[in-house]
Write a structure and sequence with these properties.
Helix content: 40-55%
Largest sheet: 2 strands, antiparallel
Family: Belongs to the peroxidase family. Classical plant (class III) peroxidase subfamily.
Number of helices: 14
Bound molecules: protoporphyrin IX containing FE, 2-acetamido-2-deoxy-beta-D-glucopyranose
Main location: secreted
Number of domains: 2
CATH topology of the largest domain: Peroxidase, domain 2
Strand order of the largest sheet: 1-2
Number of strands: 2
Active site: 69 (proton acceptor)
Subcellular location: Secreted
Keywords: Calcium, Disulfide bond, Glycoprotein, Heme, Hydrogen peroxide, Iron, Metal-binding, Oxidoreductase, Peroxidase, Pyrrolidone carboxylic acid, Secreted, Signal
Radius of gyration: 22 Å
Length: 321
Amino acid sequence: MALPASSSTSRALVLALFSLLLFSVQGQLSNNFYKKTCPNVQTIVRSVMTQAVAKEPRMGASILRLFFHDCFVQGCDASILLDDTSTFTGEKNAGPNANSVRGYEIIDAIKTQMEASCNATVSCADILALAARDGVNLLGGPTWNVPLGRRDSRTASQSAANANLPGPGSSLATLISIFGAKGFTAREMTALSGAHTIGQTRCQIFRSRIFNEANINSSFATLRQQTCPQTGSDNVLSPIDIQSPTTFDNAYYVNLMNQKGLFHSDQELFNGGSLDKQVKQYSNNGAVFAKDFAKAMVKMGNLSPLTGNNGEVRLSCRKTN
Ligand code: HEM
Ligand SMILES: *[C@@H]1O[C@H](CO)[C@@H](O)[C@H](O)[C@H]1NC(C)=O
Ligand SMILES: *[C@@H]1O[C@H](CO)[C@@H](O)[C@H](O)[C@H]1NC(C)=O
């Protein structure tokens, strides 16, 4: 584009456009962020995740949850990956994470390969966003483009992890409010909850539901009670989705319609309330669910990322540089 060099209006325009460009590069994520600096970023994540999920299908679920618990606390900044030290309290020992969130070694394995290919370039926060997407897809779920360019935090917040993450005893109103605080509609919250179509959970999380609640299928409750008694067996695992715990499908919603949600919070989505219709729709139409889930995951990945010169690219995901 040729511009008359003397025209100050044109120069002002060019300047304005240039700052707009700079601003958008610094302020948001982009699909091609590592195109020049680490072209194999997606291949590296995919290959480690493929091996990990082949070895243990549950790992796809565990990494997905790790990403959720990262993004809801200070944004998607890999804060959850920082280890506690004698002088630093991170998020790993917060109530919702301790003895529960897993998969940290898989992120380490991806990071090691990443450093070997393109050192000090790809953030742990971006690795987590890609790995969560691949975990879902490798278990039969949808795929989506993951905008990149997140940077890693130098801080973490145990108190925010305790405050911002929903618990299995949450009411529908609490779920709507916790997700609403992060900018999600009740519809998006319902789609994201479909993540519970994969993965496992400990007896202590759902014991009170299978012994005390009325809106549960009685043969389902009896089945779960066999490995989750009134006392003991706190850490014994059960699949969250009774039908297909290693397949990312819409069976979670079918379960809810049959009063086979394992967490109190899950069954809250189908208990005579405002989201019953949506649960029914997803139970009838897996494609609509898959599409809504993918869209909501991209939105979750956009929660307050550090970009530009904020934060850092950690060399080890477990500690700040
Ligand atoms: C709606 C509110 C939610 C509540 C109350 C909730 C709660 C829980 C609880 C209590 C567990 C089991 C923890 C344990 O047994 O140690 C769990 C597991 C899991 N959650 Fe959620 N969660 C919610 C939303 C989500 C979202 C939005 C995602 C991801 C998008 C997600 C992904 C998972 C996965 C994949 C597992 C299984 C993890 C594994 O097998 O390692 N959850 N969730
Ligand atoms: C990355 O690699 C270069 C070249 O091998 C090396 O000089 C540099 O110290 C490395 N950077 C880090 C942070 O490891
Ligand atoms: C509970 O689930 C079982 C097994 O799927 C089914 O046969 C039964 O009809 C259900 N019970 C009720 C009360 O819906």
